[in-house]
Amino acid sequence: MHLGGLIERQARYRGDHLAVVFGDERLTYRAFARRVHRLAHGLLGLGLAKGDKIASVMPNALELLTLYWAAAETGLVVVPMSPLLSERGLSGLLAASDSRAVLAHPRTADAVAAALEGNGAVAPERRIIACGRKDGFTAYDDLVSGAADTPPPDPDLTGEDLFNIVYSSGTTGEPKGIMLSHFVRTQYAALFGASFRMRPESVVLHAGAIIFNGAFISLMPSFFLGGTYVLQETFEPEAFIAAIERERATHIVLVPTQIAALLASPDFTGERVGSLEMVQSLGAPLPLEHKRRLDERLPGRFYELYGLTEGFMVILDKHDFPRKPGSVGTPPPFFEVRVVDEQGHDKPVGEIGEIIGRSPIMMSGYYKRPDLTAETVRKGWIHSGDLGYLDEDGFLYLVDRKKDMIISGGVNVYPRDIEEVAARHPMVQEVAVFGVPHAKWGESPVAAIVPAPDAEIADRDAAAAEIAAWINERVAARFQKVARVVLLDAFPRNAAGKILKRELREAYRDVAADREDRETA
Fold it and tell me: In the chain, which end has fewer C-beta atoms inside a 10 angstrom radius, N or C?
């Protein structure tokens, strides 16, 4: 089971059905298939072959969506990277992923070019720029111009072949590339399509970045069923509402910050968005108040999904929400979820433990990191590091998030990445980064710092602001910028000397987090 012939299949049997909408472009399956085939031939013409990695550093664009399906039918492996990453962050991921080509955008091209300096694996002709032209890059339009619009040669794919590598953390020293096979993506298509009651007439609208795994929750079923996929470059509440109304959208997947923005709009009414059959929240816990407000505005449409890209998920169905509003749901068919103690024994109903799971969508492992894979997958079960409990009906409830991870605007922000940067500042003796609530982004990072004994601090507020600016100039991505730095004489610790970040979060939860300079992912 693989994705190689899916788009051509839809072109043959549903050729006149609307497949993709992006801006002013409205493409039937027949027209979209021709685009996919031309890009496939163009990439093969660069000397790329099955198994080669091609990175993308793109905002949402028709070219990026086309790349996913061109890779699917050639056996190339797409490695999507955030356009918010810095030169340093890109350099690390391009090297770690063994990328041999890269698709960039005019807004990211300079950072990509600098990141590729000295990286001979990506030959100059394999540096492709979409939506424009730039010295040192092959123009996307030139690459596909004159290329055949028929299917490329059969790459002899199997379900075990990789489809893409999704990096779980922006730019740590040890990036974890989650390898997802063609078989896994076919299961996304079939299993999630059934879970969300999707059909060939469904219209999926998506404005979140399609570089993140959450996008595939609705993207894969839409193309599998031959439905219509409406992609927007960015999320803007009024434009999103207008698109729902105009396209008669039926299914949307959002992160909590986007849901909050929609709820704040007076235009988000049943009259304007009544075509919706699913409003799904994922990526971070959605406050119960927001769930209730959403259900009042659009009764019987709310779904919630919790899970790991590594390979298991639970879904709160719209019919279960009224009786289990605080839950994140139950595992779909063929999925299993348990809550266990430190020895791996099942915890009794209602008792908190670590959430583990297994399913047909499990990763092949972390790319070139069997050691990290062995830490996460034990005896066939993915260990999440998240805490939760099961009720008497088998519904899962979250208690705490994976370790101390911060989720800001639906993007995973790992405190250690920021702590490693802050620790290099000469005034810093110790640092602990944690998340505080933010009305727009959900959470924002705050850095608590114990100054070095020899640090000369005349004005603590000025010193904190200087350290914050210093950190924010050096982090790898915009979403890693700290909202504030607070200076402390000592950290709260447990008996083992471990810093108690939970106490820090509680103490500073009302710190105003002004992150307006940051872009949503």
Answer: N
